[in-house]
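Consider a typical record:
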Amino acid sequence: MQQPQAHGLASTLHALVDWTQARLSERESWDGITLIVLSFLVLMFSSLIVYIAWAGIAYGGWLTWQKGSWKRLTGRPDMGNLP
């Protein structure tokens, strides 16, 4: 008894590999892959950007609140200590 399913699967996989190789040789396919990957990254990291922005605001506020933070950031004396 022959195994037609195995032969069908092998020919299907071979056709899929041939199709993939043909698409990878086209510039439009690379443009499409790049667009898909970049869009996926934006969707994946968009929620993290909000938390990073809040952390930046909090750190900026903390630096502003601390005494001497201007001197540490710029190496110059505080603006309030100028004659």
